[in-house]
From TrEMBL:
Domain DH: 95-277
Entry keywords, A to Z: Cytoplasm, Guanine-nucleotide releasing factor
Signal peptide: none
Protein's organism: Pelecanoides urinatrix (Common diving petrel)
GO cellular component, one term: cytoplasm
Keyword hit for Cytoplasm: yes
Protein name per its UniProtKB record: ARHG8 protein
Subcellular location: Cytoplasm
UniProt region (Disordered), positions on chain: 47-71, 437-515
Length: 515
């Protein structure tokens, strides 16, 4: 149990009345400032960047000690049985009934939370004009419509429960009910946009103050508003686990065995459909927030994307923060910007189609990071968690050395990119092209020497030259080939002297045209 500071025993304190709604408790006129903690990082778990108030509002007069948060009963099914009944059941059957009871109890808790979200948050904010009806509809969606859905399951489980508290067969009930969960497609698809709007509205001090008061009230159980709005999604992913637990404790000769296996298959299909729809919605959400500096950056593969394989913050070689999106067919690097208090993403350089993408998994210390990293790391320190992405064809003139926050996130990116490019990888002959020219990390679109590089590469490919490196540290006006690297141009051995002659000619041309 939690310990709270108590007032002196000789001081008279008026006890707090029990409330389930703040509609009549908060005055829209008196709203004090509430300090907020900064953003916190989450995990697929897909939940993390929400801002929540952290300190209680100071009152002009001293108030009573805080009321302990409301707690839910965690009674086990077996604890409600009498001794004789408990002795008549096998251990396996008791565990089976426990799992069925856990599902039933979870439905009851879900229904209570959905009703609470409407009664304690939606209705008061609408009545007090803290948010508009349109904003509340966007954030809460059609949450009310799911209450009857779960009440139906709860009623069916109640009807199947015998006087002694046991449920003989649950499979037919679930097979009939689970397909109705497809109704959550729209709600889950809207969650990303709803979360963004809620975070934006939290900048409003009236919204901030209201949500903080709710958080301090017993009915909230110390959960913020988004926790309540995310409860349906978290409940959905629990269904397969609950069903597998029931199946695990069901005897092999029980009539529920095959039906429960069918139910598990149904819920997995439902979740797959919801995830697909949610992924498409998330993909479109970010596509709509992209800003292009040049019409050449626009690619039909971006607008046509239906899946976002990976996205997140990385740093480039100069230490600048980039937000990178790996869509199903194209990699897009962006700079996060704010437009009218809304997040947007300015496309950085030319997007790289997956079929033209090359990935280099660099070892720690392979690259010296410049820019802001020089002061932080120094010459002796090694840059860690880095990898490089670039075009197969050097014509676009782009290579990006990227740094993740840690080795875990680096490996996630590397794995995602490898998975994306795997279908486009060629035969074993292309394995010789692991070290293509190391291209400038600056744009070469306006550089007249770019066409020369392309022509030289084609000549080199015909002559058997398969490895050469271009220095990545270049200026905005164009790429620069380091003279020492030009001297170190590598070739395969051949019996003919013609190839070596072509090498020398090519090397000389590169020194003349690239300064």
């Amino acid at each position: 149990s939690l310990l709270y500071l108590q007032e002196p025993s000789n001081k008279r304190v008026r006890p707090l009345a029990r409330v389930t709604s703040l509609a009549n408790l908060i005055s829209p006129v008196r709203n004090g400032a509430v300090r907020r903690f900064g953003q916190t990082i989450q995990s697929f778990a897909l939940r993390s960047d929400s801002k929540s108030p952290g300190c209680p509002q100071k009152s002009c007069s001293r108030s009573a000690a805080p009321t302990p948060p409301k707690r839910r009963n965690s009674v086990l099914w077996s604890e409600m049985l009498d001794v004789n009944m408990k002795e008549s059941l096998s251990t396996k059957e008791i565990k089976r009934q426990e799992a069925i009871y856990e599902m039933s109890r979870g439905e009851q808790d879900l229904i209570e939370d959905l009703k609470l979200a409407r009664k304690a948050y939606h209705d008061p904010m609408l009545k007090l004009s803290i948010m508009s009806e349109e904003e509340l509809t966007h954030i809460f969606g059609d949450l009310d419509s799911y209450i009857p859905l779960h009440e139906d399951l709860l009623a069916s489980l109640g009807e199947a429960t015998k006087p002694d508290g046991t449920v003989e067969q649950i499979g037919p009930i679930l097979v009939k009910w689970l397909p109705r969960l497809h109704a959550y497609k729209g709600y889950c698809s809207n969650q990303l946009a709803a979360k963004a709007l809620l975070d934006q509205k939290k900048q409003d001090r009236r919204v901030q103050d209201f949500l903080q008061r709710c958080l301090e009230s017993p009915f909230s159980r110390k959960l913020d508003l988004w926790s309540f709005l995310d409860i349906p999604r978290s409940r959905l992913v629990k269904y397969p686990l609950l069903l597998k637990e029931i199946l695990r404790h069901t005897p092999k000769d029980h009539p529920d065995i095959q039906i429960l296996e069918e139910a598990i298959s149904i819920i997995q299909g439902v979740l797959s459909d919801i995830n697909l729809k949610k992924g498409e919605s998330e993909c479109q959400y970010y596509i709509d927030k992209l800003e292009y500096l040049d019409e050449k950056q626009k690619d039909p593969r971006i607008e046509g994307s239906k899946a976002l394989l990976c996205h997140g913050e990385l740093k480039n070689k100069n230490g600048h923060k980039l937000y990178v999106f790996l869509f199903q067919d194209i990699l897009v690097l962006t700079r996060p910007v704010t437009r009218n208090e809304r997040q947007a993403y300015q496309v950085y350089r030319q997007p790289i189609p997956v079929q033209e993408l090359l990935l280099e998994d660099l070892q720690d210390g392979d690259v010296k990071m410049g820019g802001s990293f020089r002061g932080a790391f120094g010459n002796s320190d090694k840059a860690k968690n880095i990898f490089r992405v670039r075009f197969q064809d050097p014509c676009p003139g782009q290579s990006h050395t990227l740094q993740a926050n840690d080795v875990f996130h680096k490996q996630q990116w590397v794995n995602c990119i490898r998975t994306a490019i795997a279908p486009f990888q060629l035969t074993a002959a292309t394995a010789e092209l692991k070290e293509l020219p190391e291209l400038s990390e600056e744009s070469e679109e306006n550089n007249p020497s770019a066409s020369n590089i392309k022509a030289q590469k084609r000549q080199s490919a015909m002559s058997g030259i398969t490895e050469m490196e271009l220095d990545e540290s270049t200026s905005e006006c164009g790429s620069i080939l380091d003279s020492e690297e030009a001297k170190g141009l590598k070739t395969h051995r051949t019996p003919s002297g013609h190839r070596k002659t072509r090498e020398k000619q090519l090397s000389g041309k590169q020194k003349e045209t690239l300064v």
